Amino acid sequence: MYRHVEKLAQEIRKGAASVDMVSLPNYGRSVPGTLQEDLLCKMSAPPNSDAPLITSNDLAEADAFVFGFPTRFSMMAAQFKAFLGATGGL
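^ NAD(P)H dehydrogenase (quinone), sequence as received from the core. Prediction below:
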């Protein structure tokens, strides 16, 4: 919500892009949010990021992937759990 993970992802991208023979076609994607727009407005959340959303098809086409997300009480965010749950067909 506050873009700190997005900033971290941008820095990781810079490092990965500096490695020879590394291609990053789907880098910087975001998982769909779970909060409704009206609730986000009440929370004074900034506008949604312009990062494209990742899909399970993007994962199927990748040779490898790296995920980064904040943890709360040693658990990944609910949004990411929902995304992984939707990839059961892979």
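Residues 4-80 form a domain with the Rossmann fold fold (CATH 3.40.50.360).
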